[in-house]
Design goal:
Length: 595
C-alpha cells in the first residue's frame, strides 16, 4: 500500500458527509494498481450510462456575461464566489468577480446577469468592508437596475436573531430597483457548503436557459453543465477532513488568583501539510459537554439512548437556540405557550441567554430520537486566530482560548469550544483542526511600514504571530501594541513575550490598560486618547492599523475613539474623520478581525 497521503474528496463534493468520510477512508488505503483499476471502471461506467456532454468548438458563440458580487467578513462568501466563478468559466460564461468593498451600485447597472453572495455580520449588519456599498445601494439615489437578472445567496448564523438579514435586504432592494429575480433567495447557516453548491448549479443553469432558450447544436458552443465544486487540487486536510493535531502544551496564562482562565494551546502540525500566514485562523472540531448532552436527553425523555448520546456529543449543535428551532419544536409540541411565543416578537427576548435545553424543559414533550435530531443543526467548528508564526515555530500552531463561564436563567453555562479545550483536553490528546485563511487581516508587504495593533484580552493572539513574523523577517518598521485586561498581576497575557520583543526592538512601544487595578475603569481606548497626538502622527506617517477582539463593545468603542482622535488632531468634522478612516480601509491600512 502507498504510505504517502492521497488527495481526498473536498467538503463540497456531491455526497453525504458520511459517504465522504467512507470514501476518503477507502482511498487512503488504496494502491496505485487499485486506483488505476478504479479510474478505468469509472470511465467505462460513465461511457455506458452518462448522457454525453457537448464540448465547445472553435468559433463558438460569444460567452454569456456574468457578474459575481460578494460581501465577506471571514472569507466564506468570497470563497463561494470564487468557486462560482471557476464553475461559470468551465460552463462557458464570461464571469467577473467583484468585491463589494471595491464596487459601487453603478457597477451593476450594466450587468445582464448578477449573482450575489452576501454574509451577515453580528445582529444584521453588512460585513465591514461592504458597508459603503450597502449604504449606497439602500440610498434613495441608488441607480435603477432595470432588467438586471439576479439571484442572491445569503450566508449567516441561525443563532443570531437577524439570520441572513443582509442577504434578505439585498434581495428585496435589487427587485425594488428594477432587477428581475432569477430564483428565490437561498439562506445558508454555518454549514453552508452543500446548499451553496446547489444554489450555484441551479443559478448557472437558469442563466444558461434564459440566455440560450434553444438547445445549442454541436459545434455552436453549447454550455457544459459540470459540477459546481471545489477544484481537485483541494488541500489534503480541510473542514471536511481535519488533521488530528497532537497537543504539546496546554497552559493557563492567568494566575491562580485571577477570575479568568485563558489557555495557551500548542498544537503539532507535523505531517499535516498545513500552512498558514499570520492573521489566519485555525478551525477546531469541538465536542459538546457530556453534562449538557445528558440534560438535553433527559428533557426530551430520551435518557439511556447511548447511540443518540454519542451523536449529540460529537455531531449536533445542542446549545444554539434560534427561531427556527422554536418553530420546529412547536410543530411537534402542541403546548399553547409555544404558539404564543412565536405569534409576536416575544421569541426575540426569549432567545437571550437561553439554550435548547431551556426550551425543552420549559415546554416539556417526549420526543423520538429522530424528532430531536431533526431540531438540531450540525455542530459547527470554532475559529481561533493563530497566535504563532511558522517561521518561529515550524510545524506548530499556537492558539489562545479564553474559557467562557456565565450564569443565566438559573443555570451555570460554559462555552462549547472553550470548555472542551480548557476543561476536558490534556497534553498528548489530539484535536481535529484545519486552516481558515483570512487574507483581509495581513501584515503589510513593506516590512518597513509602521504597524499599530490593538488587541485586548484574547484579541492579542494574532499580534503575537505578527511580531514573531516581523522578527523572523528582520523587519525595520516600528510597531506599537495596545493591550488591555483586568489586572496587571494576574491577566497580563504573554507578558514575557512582549518584554522580549521590546528588548530586541521588534516591538517599539506598548501601552497597557488594566481595567480593575484602580477605582475607575480604564480600557485601551482611554490609552489611545491619552496618546492621541503620537497615534495620529503614526497614521499620517503611513502606519497600518489592526484591531482584534470583541465586536459588540470593544471594537465599536475603539473605532469611535479613532474617529475622535482624527477629528481632534486634524481639525476635521466628525463626518470627515469617518471618511478618513473609510479611506484607510479602502487602502487596507485599517483592518479588523472582530467577533
Amino acid at each position: 500500500m502507498s504510505s504517502s497521503p492521497l488527495p481526498v474528496l473536498p467538503d463540497s463534493a456531491p455526497f453525504a458527509a458520511d459517504h465522504i468520510r467512507a470514501l476518503n477512508s477507502v482511498m487512503a488505503e488504496t494502491s496505485a494498481e487499485q486506483r488505476h483499476w478504479l479510474s478505468g471502471f469509472l470511465a467505462g461506467y460513465h461511457a455506458a450510462f452518462a448522457q454525453p456532454m457537448a464540448a465547445p468548438q472553435p468559433g463558438a458563440r460569444a460567452k454569456i456575461p456574468l457578474t459575481i458580487l460578494f460581501a465577506t467578513e471571514s472569507g466564506n462568501a468570497e470563497g463561494v464566489a470564487a468557486e462560482a466563478k471557476k464553475a461559470a468559466g468551465r460552463q462557458g460564461f464570461a464571469a467577473r468577480l467583484l468585491d463589494m468593498a471595491d464596487a459601487s451600485p453603478a457597477d451593476l447597472a450594466a450587468a445582464r446577469h448578477l449573482l450575489v453572495i452576501a454574509s451577515t455580520w453580528g445582529e444584521g449588519d453588512p460585513p465591514e468592508r461592504a458597508a459603503g456599498f450597502y449604504a449606497s445601494l439602500m440610498a434613495e439615489d441608488a441607480p435603477r437596475l432595470e432588467g438586471v437578472r439576479f439571484a442572491v445567496l445569503a450566508l449567516g448564523d441561525s443563532s443570531y436573531v437577524n439570520f441572513c438579514e443582509v442577504g434578505k435586504r439585498l434581495d428585496a432592494r435589487l427587485e425594488e430597483l428594477g432587477g428581475v429575480r432569477l430564483a428565490p433567495r437561498t439562506d445558508c447557516d454555518l454549514d453552508y457548503e452543500a446548499r451553496a453548491a446547489d444554489w450555484g448549479r441551479d443559478a448557472l443553469a437558469e442563466i444558461a436557459r434564459i440566455a440560450e432558450p434553444e438547445p445549442a447544436a454541436a459545434g455552436r458552443g453549447a454550455i457544459i453543465h459540470v459540477d459546481f465544486a471545489t477544484p481537485a487540487a483541494a488541500p489534503l486536510h480541510s473542514k471536511a477532513n481535519p488533521f488530528p493535531a497532537e497537543i504539546g502544551e496546554l497552559i493557563n496564562l492567568n494566575s491562580s488568583r485571577s477570575g479568568k482562565a485563558t489557555i495557551h494551546l500548542e498544537l503539532s502540525l507535523a505531517g499535516s501539510g498545513l500552512t498558514f500566514e499570520p492573521g489566519d485562523a485555525l478551525g477546531i472540531v469541538v465536542q459538546n459537554d457530556p453534562a449538557t448532552v445528558e440534560a438535553v436527553l433527559r428533557a426530551a425523555g430520551l435518557e439511556g439512548e447511548a447511540a443518540l448520546a454519542a451523536r449529540l456529543g460529537e455531531e449536533l449543535d445542542i446549545t444554539a437556540l434560534s427561531r427556527r428551532v422554536i418553530e420546529a419544536y412547536a410543530g411537534l409540541n402542541p403546548a399553547p405557550g409555544l404558539q404564543e411565543l412565536l405569534a409576536g416578537e416575544g421569541w426575540r427576548g426569549y432567545l437571550a441567554g437561553r439554550q435548547i435545553v431551556d426550551l425543552l424543559e420549559e415546554f416539556p414533550y417526549e420526543l423520538t430520537p429522530e424528532q430531536l435530531q431533526g431540531l438540531l443543526r450540525k455542530l459547527p467548528p470554532r475559529l481561533y486566530s493563530v497566535a504563532s508564526s511558522l517561521r518561529a515555530a515550524p510545524e506548530e500552531a499556537h492558539l489562545l482560548v479564553g474559557l467562557v463561564r456565565y450564569q443565566s436563567h438559573g443555570r451555570s453555562r460554559t462555552g462549547v469550544a472553550s470548555g472542551f479545550v480548557a476543561e476536558r483536553l490534556r497534553a498528548g490528546a489530539t484535536l481535529p483542526v484545519y486552516v481558515k485563511p483570512n487574507k483581509n487581516f495581513r501584515l503589510p508587504d513593506e516590512s518597513e511600514r509602521p504597524i499599530v495593533v490593538i488587541g485586548p484580552g484574547t484579541g492579542v493572539a494574532p499580534f503575537r504571530a505578527f511580531l514573531q513574523e516581523r522578527q523572523a523577517q528582520d523587519a525595520k518598521g516600528p510597531s506599537w501594541l495596545f493591550f488591555g485586561d483586568r489586572n496587571f498581576s494576574h491577566d497580563f497575557l504573554y507578558q514575557l513575550d512582549w518584554q522580549d520583543f521590546l528588548k530586541q526592538g521588534v516591538l517599539s512601544r506598548i501601552d497597557v490598560a488594566f481595567s480593575r487595578d484602580q477605582p475607575e475603569k480604564i480600557y485601551v481606548q482611554h490609552r489611545m486618547w491619552q496618546r492621541r497626538a503620537e497615534l495620529y502622527a503614526w497614521l499620517e506617517d503611513g502606519a497600518q492599523l489592526y484591531i482584534c477582539g470583541d465586536e459588540k463593545a470593544m471594537a465599536k468603542d475603539v473605532h469611535a475613539t479613532l474617529a475622535r482622535i482624527v477629528a481632534d488632531q486634524s481639525g476635521r468634522s466628525a463626518e470627515t474623520a469617518e471618511a478618513y478612516l473609510a479611506d484607510l480601509r479602502k487602502e487596507r491600512r485599517y483592518q479588523r478581525d472582530v467577533y
